[in-house]
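Design request, tokens follow.
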């Protein structure tokens, strides 16, 4: 079981040797601010730069697609082309000049990719009638694996400290992990070992291509989209044992909740993962970590660093506020459009936030 009584201001060293100046990571938040060709826009740069100046120890980009046909929403940042490198370099320089670690999240939407952006039928592990997607051929699976690895090398060239492989929320890597969406009968389907093969090949390929001093993380979610809690726990064990990752990022929806899946115990969802032996791998979690009280509670439970989403939107300098005041409570929502503009959100991002219940005032 993890035991960690670290304070939020304390530095954290990863197995790769990279050091994070405090225990706050900016969540990889969809913001719809970049250009149609996947290049970084001034709006997305400003949003992330403001969080770097606000002293987040690790700044993670939004989910950035590794193939043009993996694009899932308007204004999505891409990392599938060398033409996008210069924008990423501008971003990594700004983040690192403010003392933060710069990490890009590698992503493919799979069956959830939007036809209006990719101009072709979305792909998935198996044919899916609901999403009108087609099954990937074995050759295409290998191409996607290689494109994840190529994107990581592109990220390293752009100056990123590392990457995170997005394996959550029902996107392509998670679709392969899913007992619901993966009905393949080859080496990438069937058993959990087979369904996780793509993820492990991506991680191993990134580590080999980018070296031991490059941060590699994996984001997982143990619920919804055909995820099984016991399987995700086993997957976490395998990732830790592989000695290929620096951190595991668990998206829990709510770090204080009981699992939706019935278990033999009354343990909270987070407790199921705190009982694992993480060796040198660091653990971060997200979900309803609102203010100073929750940050300290989660860190004291044994989590190495916290991932902040909603409160990072509301307060670009959330780490400073919590470090200076452990009782800090974030602004109540809904907030005004002007409030969000002052926190570095562009009009496109604010429009997206209007889809969150009771977040933006009319």
């Amino acid at each position: 079981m993890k035991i960690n009584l670290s304070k939020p201001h304390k530095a954290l060293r990863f197995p790769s040797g990279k050091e994070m100046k405090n225990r706050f990571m900016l969540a990889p938040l969809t913001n719809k601010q970049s250009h149609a060709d996947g290049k970084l826009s001034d709006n997305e740069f400003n949003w992330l730069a403001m969080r770097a100046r606000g002293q987040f120890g690790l700044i993670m980009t939004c989910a950035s697609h590794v193939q043009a046909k993996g694009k899932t929403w308007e204004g999505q940042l891409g990392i599938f082309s060398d033409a996008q490198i210069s924008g990423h370099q501008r971003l990594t320089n700004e983040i690192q000049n403010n003392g933060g670690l710069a990490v890009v999240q590698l992503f493919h939407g799979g069956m959830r990719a939007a036809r209006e952006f990719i101009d072709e039928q979305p792909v998935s592990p198996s044919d899916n009638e609901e999403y009108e997607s087609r099954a990937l051929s074995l050759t295409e699976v290998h191409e996607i694996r290689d494109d994840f690895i190529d994107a990581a090398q592109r990220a390293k060239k752009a100056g990123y400290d590392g990457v995170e492989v997005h394996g959550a929320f029902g996107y392509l890597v998670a679709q392969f992990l899913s007992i619901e969406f993966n009905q393949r009968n080859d080496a990438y389907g069937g058993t959990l070992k087979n369904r996780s093969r793509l993820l492990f090949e991506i991680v191993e390929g990134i580590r080999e291509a980018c070296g031991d001093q490059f941060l590699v993380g994996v984001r997982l979610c143990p619920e919804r989209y055909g995820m099984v809690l016991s399987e995700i726990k086993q997957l976490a064990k395998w990732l830790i044992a592989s000695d290929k990752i620096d951190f595991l990022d668990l998206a829990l929806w709510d770090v204080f909740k009981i699992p939706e899946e019935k278990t033999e115990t009354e343990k909270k969802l987070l407790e199921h993962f705190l009982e694992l032996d993480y060796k040198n791998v660091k653990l971060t979690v997200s979900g309803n970590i609102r203010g100073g009280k929750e940050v300290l509670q989660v860190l004291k439970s044994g989590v190495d660093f916290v991932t902040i989403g909603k409160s990072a939107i509301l307060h670009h300098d959330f780490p400073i506020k919590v470090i200076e005041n452990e009782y800090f409570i974030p602004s109540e929502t809904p907030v005004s459009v002007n409030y969000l503009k002052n926190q570095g959100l562009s009009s496109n991002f604010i429009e997206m936030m209007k889809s969150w219940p009771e977040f933006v005032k009319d």
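Comment from the thread starter after seeing the answer: thanks! The radius of gyration is 19 Å.
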